[in-house]
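$ run holo --ligand "fe (iii) ion" --emit tokens
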Amino acid sequence: MKLQNLHDLFVDELKDIYSAEKQLVKALPKMAQASSSQKLKDAFEKHLAQTKVHVERIESVFKSMDKKPTAKTCKAMEGLIEEGKELISEEAEESTKDAGLICAAQKVEHYEIASYGCLVTFANHLGLDKGAKILQQTLEEEKETDQLLTEIAESEINVQAEG
Ligand code: FE
Ligand code: FE
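-- output --
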């Protein structure tokens, strides 16, 4: 279907992030399970709970536009998750693997931050105030998660992984 305008692009991007978030609901428990650090495990589990809410928020944005929530496979997230899986199956020292898991997770967060950043900008421009507000909440949580991961890396994991 031809994307005619910014509104069409907004809906298309919303379908992409809907797919991405649903993939993450499945991937995050595996990231938590692969973590040796309790702090990192907890961070992944907390973000899993948030991610389930992110899925619901996207559904409510679709509904606010009288649209049925639809996903369009996010190939970028498939790739990022695939790389995470590769790392999980790698033979590595515990803290070294944890450092790698943080790196993989931060790549995911940055993809989400870019996506939600665009979505919020589009929604504001289109006068979709309700949608903009909902998506902004998720954007903030993605940024917080990214920061939390940096803190865990700097305060604990990278020091241990240094060897
Ligand atoms: Fe999310
Ligand atoms: Fe996230």
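-- notes --
The radius of gyration is 17 Å.
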